[in-house]
Amino acid sequence: MRFPPCVLGAWILLLPALSAAGAGEGAVGAFDLGLLTPAALSAERERWVVLDGRSRRAYEAGHIPGARPFSWEDHTGTDPSGVPYRMWPPGRMAGALARVGIGPDTPVAAYGDAGRSWGGEAWICWVLAYLGHRGPIRLLAGGIQAWRRAGLPLERGPAPPPRPGPGYTVALRPDVLADRAAAARAAREGRLVDVRSTWEWWTGRIPGAVHVPWTDFREGDPPVPISAGRFRAVLARVGVPADGPVVFYCAGGVRSAWAWLAAVLAGRAGARNYEGGMAEWRQAAR
User: Fold this and answer.
1) Local structure of residue 243 (DSSP, 8 states)
2) At 76, which CATH number?
3) Sorting pLDDT into bands at 50, 70 and 90, what band is 30?
4) Is pLDDT of 20 > 70?
5) How many domains are contained in the chain?
6) Whole-angstrom Cα distance, residue 54 to residue 233?
7) By its UniProt entry, which SMART domains does this protein fall under (predicted)?
């Protein structure tokens, strides 16, 4: 695997925690959220329910043994007001998690392939945080690419039959979700970050937002969330205050979930994902 020195150094600091059996391994922030190396996941594979955030086709072409497909495409839809890409309602999402054996205390590891999954693995982490997940939530550092490069095995084919768990009790965390009013307030305060592509930015954005493409929140090969120091520098570059609330948005909450995750891993308190994104903003303006 090829990582820049700053990323490799951060991994070295995390390795003892990532290999531990305790629930707080590698965790940061108000919830038990962190990174997990391929070696640590492989060593304790039976401990984790692993969710694959890529497309169904990519999953069937090769996935981590025992992983369950859980892409944002399969768990979002158009809401009653016509806004696409909306996360399923909490009750329905809780049912989807229960069907793959996840309860509120289950250790969950999510992975994807960053660019091709549009940050869908981070979206899984954000959804779990929003639903009030109490168990460990881990992003597989480097995703499926890092797993392959480590020479670890893959399975092919469709998902195994569901293995229902004890049920999922929701305890919503509204502090990680921004609605339209919160996004507008953040824009007035210089705290709203548009993470879409430059082309999308020039075709229309929320007034007052600043622009940082979501790809600026990842680094290394294979990509991982940027370091805390680089995260602070990226926001400083566009004039976002160094502390306090910050809201990220994209078209529909997926790429912005990656930026949110990078913020949480960097220790930034008050980070929120405007899940409705530009799709909701445009719909409300009609």
Assistant:
1) S
2) 3.40.250.10
3) confident
4) no
5) 2
6) 30
7) RHOD (SM00450)
Instruction: Note whether residue 5 is domain-resident.
Output: no
Compute φ and ψ for 193, nearest 5 degrees. Answer: -115, 120
Final residue belonging to a domain, choices 139, 172, 205: 172
Q: Express each pLDDT in 54-86 by its tens digit.
A: 999 999 999 999 999 999 999 999 999 999 999
* Shared-domain flag, residues 197 and 106: no
Of 133, 155, 172, the last residue of a domain is 172
- List residues bridging with 211 in a β-sheet: 194
> Is 147 strand, coil or helix?
helix
CA distance 113 to 42: 18
Q: pLDDT tier at 166 (50, 70, 90 boundaries)?
A: confident
Cα gap 46→39, rounded to integer Å = 13
Residue ranges making up the domain that contains 268 = 177-285
pLDDT computed for residue 116 by the predictor: 81
